[in-house]
């Protein structure tokens, strides 16, 4: 809020309610796209459709075997791509803050690059490097949509000088994203699980550092407390799901096709990992907006008061 002489108080960081709801829906759909991609990989269906952008030369291929997962993933990708581009364009016309508009276009560029990588994977017979990059871009796009969602809600009052949360939340987000890269490398056969397990120890330590530090310093602050608690809960759930995914993979290694127990343990591991990364992004954004003074973008019609 900024108080202007002779005028009412103007909330500069509250977008239209419709835009806020659309941002939330887009972020949820982006998470569902990540889950759809995990289902494709876990069902060994990455090359179930051998051409792109058509599907075995058709708009709608026969729904059998792994084609169902691959086609559903393509449809989800098209929907999410459209949603993210619409969100960016909507923010461009209604969002007064330049940094929020940049986040929207960054998300749009990421989802379009992800689509291009998906097509390249099919045409180049699923090279591991492109598959890993494709998975990482999906996480980046989800993280950007989470940041946009948090940016569309009211910011917290500014923190006292001695109440800084330090770099812990940002480092936790970075560590969890690096775990995404290692996890994608394991899923696509580019490395063994050992680096991923070691990375899990490091990422968990950073998440604990961030969450516990925020809880100790800001227990009375409900939004920060909820975000920190969610980060800790999701991180520990991710650790247990990682053990379950590894155990189910080892137990079904000799089976001729992916078994349901392995598929769902792996997909749950990917989904909760994405949520943990999103929680770290949300915590970082809440702290960033609390510590960042609210300034209107005069070029977009904002108003400032001395």
Low-confidence stretches: 1-10, 295-306
Integer-rounded radius of gyration = 21 Å
- Strand element count: 0
Distance between the termini: 13 Å
The overall pLDDT average reads 85
Domain tally: 2
What share of the residues lie within helices? 55-70%
Shape: globular
Percentage beta strand: under 5%
**SSE class:** mainly alpha
Give the helices and strands as they follow along the chain: HHHHHHHH
Q: Count helical runs.
A: 8
Largest sheet: none
What does this structure look like?
It is a single chain. By secondary structure, this protein is mainly alpha-helical. The chain has 2 domains: 144 residues, no CATH class; 130 residues. The chain is built from 8 helices and no strands. Helix 3 packs antiparallel against helix 4, helix 4 crosses helix 8 and helix 5 packs antiparallel against helix 8. It is globular, with a radius of gyration of 21 Å. 40% of the residues are buried. The N terminus and C terminus are likely disordered.
What is the strand and helix layout of this fold?
Elements: H1 17-42, H2 67-94, H3 98-123, H4 128-151, H5 168-187, H6 193-217, H7 222-251, H8 260-291
Task: Supply database-style keywords.
single chain, 306 residues, mainly alpha, 8 helices, disordered N terminus, disordered C terminus
